[in-house]
Predict the 3D structure of the following.
Amino acid sequence: MKRWLATCLLILCSLHAEAAIEVYQFEQPEHEKLYTQMISELRCLVCQNQNLSASNSALARDLRKQTYEMVIRGQAEAQIVDYMVKRYGDFVLYRPPVKFSTALLWFGPFILLFLGIALLIATLRKRKESTNKPLSDSQHKRVSELLDSGD
Amino acid sequence: MIPEIGHIALIIALVMAVVQASLPMIGAQQRKLEWINLASPLARGQFLFVAVAYGCLTYSFIVNDFSVRYVASTSNTALPLLYKVSGVWGAHEGSLLLWALLLSAWTVVVSLFSRGIPLLILARVLSVMGMISIGFISFMLFTSNPFVRLFPAPMDGRSLNPLLQDFGLAIHPPMLYMGYVGFSVAFAFSIAAMIDGKLDAAWARWVRPWTNIAWVFMTLGIALGSWWAYYELGWGGWWFWDPVENASLMPWLVGTALIHSLAVTEKRAAFKSWTVLLAIFSFSLSLLGTFLVRSGVLTSVHAFTTDPARGLYILVFLVLVIGGSLALYAWRAPSLRSIGQFSAISRETGLLLNNVVLVAMAGSVLLGTIYPLALDALGVGKISVGPPYFNQIMVPLGVPLFLAMGLGLTLRWKKDSTSRLSKKAIIPMGLALLIAILLPLLFAPEQHGLTFIGLILASWVALAAMIWLLNQGRSPFKLPASTWGAVIAHIGMAVTVTGITLTSIYSLEKDVRLAPNEQYSLGDYQFKLIGVQKVQRDNYVAYQGTVEASERGEQAMLMHPEKRTYLSQSRPMTEAAIDPGLFRDLFVALGEPLGKGAWSLRIYHKPFVRWIWLGALFMALGGLMAALDKRYRRLSSRVEVTV
Amino acid sequence: MRLRTVIPLFAFMLLAVLLAVGLRLNPREVPSPLIDKLAPGFILPTLYKQSANISPADMKGKVWLLNVWASWCGACRAEHSVLNRFVKDHQVEVVGLNYKDGSREAKQWLKKLGNPYAKVAVDREGLVGIDWGVYGVPETFVIDQQGVIRYKNIGPVKQQDIDETIMPLIVQLQQGNVS
């Protein structure tokens, strides 16, 4: 199964420097902007790891066309996303939706940062306490040795 | 015959690695001098045999020995010599051999520059590097042997992917591997220090130059990869957040944190266990990246042929190396007491903040990279995590990092005061504010909040570094190389951030249909299609377009985008024409014929895109200067501080 | 040993377990969101009779298969004999969806390799394919009496898939055991 998919995919899009360039006409610049954004944020399902914009696979072409038609019909981003997700699932989105299963994904980085900063503050506090304790003579000696060792 | 010699040499190298990993380590525990002394000669021997194996494989490539399966699958007779030599590391098996070669080379270099390092520590360091070598060589021999024969031998080989027939890409993997492998030195020193239970300023002084050099290679490797993707993949992107790229970015981020944390460990004997943890992390992430790329658990644009057996093997190796070192850390780290005192406002705190943010960034990249895998493993469904996610996460994380970066150099060790700091910060911050407001007003086609943020952070970092350099109280030219290194690296980061900001916000892109002599204007530039003709080259045929690009009435220049069909391939490839410039790149790619001589073209105007890689060059230069600082050459005058 | 120094080890072990599970997964197979949903409707011409239309609504009350195929698809050739045997062995109708193909090539292909299909719908533009979330031809859907998609096989159907998954499911559906 895996091997079949691999070969099939190789045929479909072995090289990624070959994306087709279709020339779509837009009468409104917002439409063009939305189209460009959508095809860069939607994933080509058959490719290794590429968005619709960079892929030349037949499916990517079809989906670009579909996206274009929806855009000029005046559909909003949410509608296009909904259309794609209904057919291909969340996998098609490079910007994962915020929901329960992706909460850790979206908030994890900031939790990580805050944990790190909390740890930093805790360390600083602890240090402050230990600074208040007077150093013994031998500790003094070691500290001055260390200071000398630095440039 | 030659491939068999290579195969045997690899087996001998494995045996030597086993001895190198075991005897010196045991010798160091039991104080057996003769076993300890085996470490360096064994490291050299191992290098010699890996080099022989590597030479044999290269030879098989050069003489077109297609009876070797690996050669048959990655090379062919028509391939130019340069790409035959670089084809050695063009696929999975050979790139592992390159890894092993570079690892054994680093080991030898460490053993050569070991004056002043106590024998016990050196023996342990070389032993740990030997253990890593066992992992890689046996991985090759048991699952990915490059010397396996093919019978009957084919007349000609399958060609190297034309995308890979490029100089930039040919030297990209060795650079990157030098970085990955280089982090193993700091890793090995950390393991040695933990076994020893002793970690002092001298230790940090041994480790710093190695780490810097590894970081320099990694910086260059990543920049090269990005530059290659930009001009060769043909779509004007320079970073795709692909798992392969993330695999190199994570160790780079942690390695950057390590460089800074080592500075504190050297100068202030603080952060000891933290530094050791970062050293373990940076190498572990290098290994993890190898796993992610080669096991097939993630889909990436760069697909190595995947095989579950290989994945399992690397996973076991990961568990042994990373799990083992983290277990050792859990056990020994509490004994690595830091004694350096510092107050809440000090350079130590600044560097800790830098470390926290960099590690949070690396953690976020890891999270985004493996999250789809985690959801899939839990059976919750499949998702994709791509550029929109990473961009959205990394920008807010970058803000505190760059704010701290500007202050970092100005901060004093041990204790500083807020009033002194704010006095020092006011000039660069004021100037940065001016730049961030004025430049876009004067030059930018439209105003954007992110331009302001990017520019103010970049100019703040660069100006703070420059002003700090001038305020050193000495002539800048008499300052130590490491001071210059820090300043240049910081400026480099500012240059890269400027490039990323401006190119992300102000790039113009358009797909157009042009008939001959029709023109289209994009921003200040006019693009006119002169015509498209068919050209024949050695190993491809191409449609070559001629496009005349001109800036507001200035002299026009000709650009030649191509659509090539290589003889060994059936599908055409786009070869974009790029007109590079310090302040903007023009980029034209040829699409499809649309009848009546008209073609579809993709045109980009990418302002400041070169600054992204220019900044990386600065960073690498800075890292190199820091590594070559005079004080590391006085290693023999060793300072031993028992803690 | 302090708690703080053990955390990295625990975190890594968690990651290692995850990676071990990951090794057994296939990152390429994307599950369809259409499972257990009403099959998307279409009205398409058939391959052999342009004027005749076919729609999933015609199949109401039956358990049937929709097989997406094309003459340009190499993997379809591999599964074709399996499908031929399947329709011979079992009383289940298979509707073909000829996806982005030329009708001459498609007819030739069926003539040469045999025609397992009760009917062949022609989806020249691939629009129905998009509606059904087709991304890798061949794909095979199992649809129940109420017109709900119950299963999707991505890639060529193998005899093993028929014996172990598809046929047991069909039997269950026909007996009305699945709610």
Q: What stands out?
A: The two ends of chain B are 56 Å apart (CA to CA). Chain B has a mean pLDDT of 89.
